[in-house]
Design a protein that fits this description.
The complex is a heterodimer of chains A (about 350) and B (about 525). Chain A is mostly helical and about 350 residues long. In chain A, about 70% of the residues lie in helices and about 0% in strands. In chain B, α8 crosses α18. Helix content of chain B is about 30%, strand content about 25%. Classes of the chains: A mainly alpha (about 350), B alpha/beta (about 525).
Chain lengths: ~350, ~525
């Protein structure tokens, strides 16, 4: 029956535990996955292969101007994803990018014209406004524990609306002439033969690397994404990292909008649309996972891969719809590699 | 400790407990990763009996109930329901279909739906309803009327009811399914006194109709009141089954705790020195809930104080209050030579040299994808600043001290924290907080689920630190830990600090029976 002698039953009171061997035995494939999680090998190989295919099969693809164009497009995509990278690292994502880009572009063109402000005054005004609007997204998401999908989309729409209210409904505008030099493929920076926007990108990349890996704030940012509760117990003020990351993302989008005015030569309401997707795709294809691990260097690789593939495909005569299918497929692939972690399971 | 004769024959004649077996568990085992929650559970429930299952925290009661209600699947063993042998219930619906209805301690109702909707929750199919609305209302009202003196209207939203009434709805929901086996898993803890006695009347009626009832409770008076038989669980094993009218509290306590010590007696002697340092932390007029009794607690440098009690009796709230989470009333003061600082937030606690090791290692402490060293250094990373930027070397140098001091077994500090065993992870977390040079260290059940060697290392460390003047408050769910490690132990019951033991008053039996609020019988 169910009766059992207890007299000498040696049993500790707590559930018995057995220590787990440190580390799992890894076969070759597992080791590859481990390396892949530290360095985006697949993406780098893909980049080189696609580039070589372009050079061999498309006439003029390897010319300096063509390479400069790819770099400029990559820089725009990469700069649009600086803030997005931080937002993804803390475990959110920012869909206000498109709205903020158009709003930023309008700020320095039509808004400046209507209000009679100079380009630089408008630019100076843009910085605090976009920081506040972006920061508000982060604040609302964290304070009320709502997913940033809706809030950021709404905030992008509000930003665009605000600028339009002031500058009128018709969207037209053209950039000041000197701005065009920023994104000219034949231009140089202080005598160095690199387009200015690419030079800016390099500086930003170095700053991001230092910030993320060599400052207390960078560490705490990662901690906020890795485990918000544990970060809270470690006295990290996670709310301010949400505010900060989204504010920075808002500012980046606004400034990319300014650069895009120069690149595109005119402003229209669909200016930001491709960048909404590209900014997120660059981050994810680079291998940054929601809540980390992740890095801006990965986003750089992601931006280069996406831009190069797109350029080659355009060279082959693919239309926009084809590109969209390809983008979606690449993101699915990237998520299959990085997203299958236990983290995702925890989050759902 | 072999004075007890544990094998007590079941009474061949009893109360209505002679019915046939409706539910039987045979050698059930269930492990969660390295932790074995249920090791070997064998148990029989007869039709028409009320069968209590008792055991300490972590003895496997909840896991067993979850296996019976189809939430967990056992690793091995058999479940026999009405003669039907099976290895598991694949989902909660399967258990319900087999006639097993469970009411859990947590009040599980849908707040935004009405009483009648909650009573019949999940009974309808995708298209057709199980009963007419009218039948649902009358049957529901009858079931509730039996449990509550003033039953609510059927159309009232559940969120407008008191907690006790909500739980009554949860119980009525289970009863309305006409189960063959009714499991009450601490379901009475949310009920008020009147509803509880009404529930017991209902339980007696059900058992007279042949329903088998499994009662999980921490309250000895409930067992005394209503149980026909009781089964003791310890460390995931069913230790003994006793008739409901032939047991004493001390006997039960001994069955629940066993008698095996974790640390050899000679090692215990080392702790004997009692702390006489200055008061470093004081909690004045603390109330854990608005209705609880206020009490005062002062902590001296160099002492190790244990917080004990059954799960959720207020010890957790109290420990967190000491780290500035706040309570209903009272204040927490950090006293130093220079004066007093009131602790009003986590930040102020931390600034005043109070460190807190949270309870859930994985959810509240670990940054899973980050390295061991990053996990260690995060809250104190300011110390690693050299000029503008962090120095990896400085951080590594700091960590090296703790690796040897806490005997942390690791590959490289740059390896992921998840490459470590639970015990070593916990050591890293303790090191994380020691690195902030605290004068008061609060630990929330730090040895839960870690292996015995890591536990010993941790005990040794805490003793050394206390000898150096650190004040330690540690919540523990393990009785042995209190016996071996603590200079004194505060016992919590019903959100009150119900009892304090000094080192020499501490015995396993005395401590455990104080958990149940019945210390007089033993101590």
């Amino acid at each position: 029956m169910t009766i059992r002698a207890t007299e000498h039953a040696p049993a500790p009171v707590a559930p018995t535990t057995v220590s787990v061997p440190a580390g799992r035995q890894s076969n070759g494939f597992a080791r590859l996955i481990t390396i892949q999680k530290q360095i985006p090998v697949v993406q780098l190989v893909l980049l080189v292969v696609v580039f070589l295919v372009g050079v061999v099969t498309l006439p003029g693809f390897g010319s300096p101007v063509s390479i400069a164009s790819i770099l400029i497009l990559s820089a725009l995509a990469g700069l649009a994803s600086v803030g997005q990278t931080l937002v993804v690292i803390i475990g959110g994502f920012d869909l206000s990018v498109a709205g903020f880009i158009v709003a930023g572009a309008l700020m320095v063109t039509q808004f400046a014209q209507v209000t009679g402000l100079s380009f630089f005054t408008a630019l100076l005004l843009l910085i605090p406004v976009f920081l506040v609007l972006g920061g508000l997204t982060g604040y609302i998401c964290h304070r009320f524990n709502v997913h940033p999908i809706i809030i950021s989309l709404a905030m992008g729409s509000i930003a665009l609306g605000l600028v339009r209210v002031v500058s009128g409904t018709a969207i037209v505008g053209s950039p000041p002439a000197f701005l065009r030099a920023l994104t000219s493929p034949i231009g140089g920076t202080f005598g160095i033969p690199i387009p200015p926007i690419v030079a800016i990108w390099i500086v930003v990349a170095i700053a991001m690397a230092l910030f993320l890996h060599r400052t207390v704030a960078g560490r705490k940012l990662y901690a906020t994404g890795a485990n918000p509760r544990a970060a809270g117990y470690s006295l990290v003020r996670t709310r301010w990292f949400w505010v900060g990351a989204f504010a920075f993302s808002g500012l980046c989008s606004g400034l990319v909008g300014v650069a895009l005015v120069a690149f595109a030569g005119s402003v229209d309401s669909s200016l930001g649309d491709p960048y909404l997707f590209v900014s997120l795709a660059a981050v994810i294809v680079g291998g940054t996972v929601f809540g980390g691990p992740g890095d801006y260097t990965r986003t750089i690789v992601g931006a280069l891969v996406l831009t190069t593939i797109t350029t080659v495909l355009v060279g082959y005569g693919l239309v926009k719809a084809d590109q969209q299918i390809m983008y979606g497929a690449i993101i699915l692939l990237a998520m299959a590699i990085y997203g299958r972690d236990k983290k995702l399971k925890d989050r759902v | 400790m072999s004075t007890l004769a544990p094998v007590i024959p079941e009474s061949p004649v009893g109360r209505p407990s002679d019915g046939q077996v409706v539910l039987e568990l045979r050698s059930i085992r269930k492990a969660f990763g390295p932790t074995i929650a249920v090791k070997d559970a064998t148990f029989q429930l007869r039709a028409g009996e009320v069968h209590a299952i008792v055991g300490e925290n972590g003895s496997g009661k909840s896991t067993l109930v979850k296996i019976l209600s189809g939430i967990h699947m056992p690793d091995s063993g058999e479940i026999v329901v009405s003669g039907d042998v099976r290895s598991s219930f694949s989902r909660p619906g399967a258990a319900l279909k087999a006639g097993i209805a469970t009411v859990f301690q947590e009040v599980l109702v849908v707040e935004t739906q009405t009483v009648v909707e909650n009573l019949w929750l999940g009974s309808d199919g995708f298209f057709g309803a199980s009963k007419s609305t009218r039948a649902k209302r009358t049957e529901g009202a009858a079931a509730l009327a039996e449990l509550l003196e003033n039953p609510p209207e059927m159309d009232v939203l559940i969120e407008d009811l008191s907690l006790s009434d909500r739980q009554a709805c949860g119980i009525a929901r289970a009863i309305l399914r006409r189960p063959k086996v009714l499991i009450l898993d601490e379901a009475t803890s949310a009920l008020d006194f009147d509803t509880r006695s009404r529930l017991f009347t209902v339980v007696r009626r059900l058992s007279s109709e042949g329903v088998g009832v499994i009662l999980i409770t921490h309250r000895m008076d409930e067992i005394e009141d209503i149980a026909d038989r009781l089964t003791v669980l310890r460390s995931g094993e069913t230790i003994a089954t006793l008739p409901g009218d032939n047991w004493t509290t001390p006997q039960l306590v001994q069955l629940m705790t066993g008698a095996e010590a974790l640390v050899e007696p000679e090692e215990q002697a080392v702790v004997a020195a009692t702390a006489t340092g200055p008061v470093v932390l004081e909690a004045r007029g603390i109330r854990l809930t608005p209705s609880a009794e206020p009490f005062t607690f002062s902590l001296r440098a160099g002492e190790v104080v244990g917080l004990a009690g059954l799960e959720g009796q207020g010890q957790d709230t109290f420990l967190r209050a000491l780290w500035g989470f706040g309570t209903s009333a009272g204040e927490v003061l950090r006293t130093t030579g220079g004066g007093e600082v009131q602790i009003t937030s986590n930040a102020s606690a931390s600034r005043s040299g109070i460190a807190y090791v949270p309870r859930e290692r994985r959810a509240e402490s670990i940054f899973e994808w980050m390295s061991i060293q990053e996990n260690f250094s995060l809250p104190t990373s300011r110390q690693d600043r050299r000029g503008l930027f962090l120095s990896n070397k400085a951080s590594a140098a700091r960590f090296t001290n703790y690796i040897s001091r806490l005997n942390i077994k690791l590959g490289k500090p740059s390896d992921g924290i998840t490459t470590l065993s639970g015990g070593n992870q916990q050591k890293v977390i303790v090191a994380r907080w020691l690195a902030s040079n605290p004068e008061v260290l609060l630990l929330n059940d730090p040895t839960r689920g870690i292996d015995i060697n890591a536990k010993r290392d941790l005990y040794a460390l805490l003793r050394t630190l206390a000898a150096e003047g650190l004040a330690v408050v540690m919540l523990s769910t393990e009785v042995d830990e209190h016996i071996e490690l603590m200079d004194r132990v505060l016992v919590f019951h019903d959100d009150n600090c119900s009892r304090e033991f000094s080192k020499r008053e501490l015995t396993r039996e005395g401590l455990v029976s104080s958990f149940f609020g019945s210390e007089k019988e033993v101590a």
